[in-house]
Write a structure and sequence with these properties.
It is a single chain. It is built from eight helices and five strands, in the order βαβααβααβααβα. By secondary structure, it is of the alpha/beta class. Strands 2-3-1-4-5 form a five-stranded parallel β-sheet, sandwiched between helices. The structure holds thymidine-5'-phosphate (TMP). The site of thymidine-5'-phosphate has 13 residues, from helix 4. The site of thymidine-5'-phosphate (TMP) has 13 residues, from helix 4.
Length: 211
């Protein structure tokens, strides 16, 4: 494999995507592939500042449209500074969340009209879509339970503290995205155990990226 690739891991908070990304990256490195692990928001120095603004529970006044634009600003910076150069140099870029998260959370979750940002998406996102998106599908109730165990009920950030309805809508958003983009999306059953999921992720890489 000479070319790089861009692979994203998506799903609602607590679905297990970060664990699977780490396991996949470890496996790919053991197999001798150049790998870059990255995430959104916050995959660049500027993005880390944006992330602090986005996730600070004190920022209750952040307007939904401002929130969307901050995620997009983080994404453009990340693409230009990190993702595209790494992919061009032959690296496998594994990214924890990308634009599907904005469609699911800001579009479906908050109910924002994303047509206002259509030209930004057309110019910056559409030409640089992932080669593969692994969606970990886990019911929101189970995801929230996992999050509470992981972070503690008092440690939730601004988005973690959203209503159950918000996560239900975001979950429905991911389901619709997966259905609308079968050439790019693979749905994985997030209720499976970590090892079973890892083997499925490995199979996806073998079939779709490394062959
Ligand atoms: P993380 O916990 O996966 O790092 O993501 C931080 C939060 O940001 C998470 O609750 C999902 C949310 N998010 C959006 O709402 N829109 C986006 O475009 C992205 C990338 C993340």
């Amino acid at each position: 494999m000479k070319n790089g690739a861009f692979v994203t891991f998506e799903g609602i908070d607590g679905c297990g995507k970060s664990t699977q990304l780490e396991r996949a990256a470890d496996w790919l490195e053991t197999e001798g592939f150049p790998v870059l692990r990255t995430h959104e928001p916050g995959g660049t120095p500027i993005g880390r500042k944006i992330r602090r603004v986005l996730l600070d529970p004190a920022n209750r006044k952040l307007c939904p449209d401002s929130e969307l634009l901050l995620y997009l600003a983080d994404r453009i910076q990340h693409l230009q500074e990190v993702i595209l150069p790494a992919k061009a140099s032959g690296t496998l870029v594994l990214c924890d969340r990308f634009h599907d998260s904005a469609v699911a959370y800001q579009g479906y979750g908050r109910g924002l009209d994303l047509t206002a940002t259509a030209s930004i998406v057309q110019n910056h996102i559409i030409p640089n879509l992932p080669d593969l998106t692994l969606w970990l599908d886990l019911p929101p109730k189970m995801a929230l339970e996992r999050l509470k165990q992981l972070r503690g009920a008092n440690m939730l950030d601004r988005l973690d503290s959203e209503t159950p309805g918000f996560f239900q809508r975001a979950q429905a958003g991911f389901a619709e995205l997966a259905q609308a983009n079968p050439e790019r999306f693979v749905r994985l059953d997030g209720t499976s155990d970590i090892e079973t999921l890892h083997q499925q992720v490995v199979a996806c890489f073998q079939d779709r990226i490394l062959s």
